[in-house]
Amino acid sequence: METKSWREYWGSKTWQQRVATAVATVLAVFQIYTALFGAFDALIQRGIHLGLGLMLLFLIRPGLLRRRGAPGPSWLDWLIVVFAAVATGYLVANYDWVMEERFPFITKLAWYEKALGIGTIIVVLEATRRMFNKGLFFVVLGFLLYPFLGPYLMGPFHTSPITWIDLVDFNYLSLGGIFGIPLGVSATEIALFVIFGAVLLHSGGALLFSNLATALTGSLTGGPAKVAVVASALLGTITGSGAANVATTGVVTIPMMKRAGYRAEFAGAVEAVASTGGQLMPPVMGAAAFVMSAFSGIPYSTIIYYALFPAILYFLSIFTTVDLEARRLRLAGLATEATPLQTLRDYGHMLIPLGLLIYMLVSGYTPSMAGAVGVVSALVICQLRTTTRLNLAGVLAALEDGCKGMLIVTISTAAAGIIVGSVDITGLGNRLGTAFVSLAGGHLLVGLFMAMIIALVLGAGMPTTPAYIVQVATVIPALITLGLPPHVAHLFAFYFSCLSLISPPVAAAAFTAAAIAGSDGWKTGWLATRIGLVAFVVPFMFAYEQSLLMEGPVGTMILDMSTACLGAGAFALAGVGFLFRPLQWFERVLAFIAGVLLIAPSKYYSLAGLAVLAALLGAQYHSRLQAKKIAQT
Question: Average pLDDT for residues 81-90, to the nearest whole number?
């Protein structure tokens, strides 16, 4: 693997970029060290994690009062960097006073504590604005202002008066608010997996997965699109990010699909849907899955077990869709150069760190320990062959990229902490939960539809993790009250928080893919929604019967999982509208109904679905025979 020499790597950077590299390296070493040898007390661990993260963000994303054409951060950016170090450093240096000696909401805050607290909230808000779209910024700002507006509102939104000092105290000097559970998960677990993914990609992981996908599926009908699906599924096992998947594989697979004959909207939609699957595909999944473990108390290894088959079903449906589309367009495969054996010879040893990571997760080790061992083993094993070897510059580049990728999670979890803090301090969650159950009228199906809409709406304005966290405080307790098992309620909300990435009007993954494809973002988003339709149905099915989560009698699981695979194919048939010949509109409707019936975990529904699907396939096959007879005459 080609890497820059130390002189090229370091010499090409400005002094501001060198400072950013140093901060990123310190952050990466801090995360790896504390994972291997034990994390500090919660406030110290979270304070250092957030402080270094904020410093890095304002160094690499300068904005305010920056002179046009001037390199690096402005003087105000540097001031924010210094403030982030001082504000979080105060918490670390005065840990005993903050956590043990003072009484929250009772002990008066010193003037400098008020100033540091207000400043920290403002800096987190500004970091949110720079890191994400304005939607999340305004959502966080709205929740921050809610405690002051609540006394003037009606119904479940009415709350008792809360002073601004109490809000500052809760957000800055406690393990609620900014430094709450969401940031804690980022500081101890998620960070390691992001760094692991960066190290694996820098040492040849992207080439390993893309070459394997090309060698295995490139020569098949519609090979380029199948390469995109398989490569995104493999890459998703280590990145757990839809945006990272689109950026990494999309720049290669989308042009490849267009050259093969797929229209631009379809190429972008396939990549967006496949990349979004990275958040659903174990073992890494998305950052929200780690937060789910923290909030629900379900071990992470159990969560990835539950999520495995729905993720397989998701990718099976996409794979079938691209196959049918290729047959409709009569597209050929690719001429592949590298064989699977050659790919494994050059890069196969990089599967060892991934295998070790999975082994430790399923064996009961903590995610942080598994992630740290994965990072260290990847750094060591990559040195075994010249194709993957990293020199010092390569190692630092991997750690730096990992920390830059980590900022998405660090800032979003800090912002989500403000949201959860306002919900907790006002008691809004309990009141909204009661109102939710009342609106649902005690009916689970109505509650599930309401929860789906809320998740999609929240996901349109914020990343997956904070969108899920808001539901933890509001919707999920109500779903549990309606009779849903806790792990099912959490997975249901998680799924639809992820699917907002491909659902218009925002559809971040679809619009990113559309930009690469040069297609219309709106059309790409709706097409992506159609291709990923199975993922909108599966959560409703496992809400009523958990065999799709691999729970229950073995025989029932095998039967339900087998018919669900046929259902995924039926959804693909309905979406593409082609098998041996184009489907009429009513045939596509029947294919959709067959898909729903087959995925439904009931043998009676499955039998009905099989009958409908068999009738459709029979009609299609009969049409093919008739066409052959006409052609022969």
Answer: 96
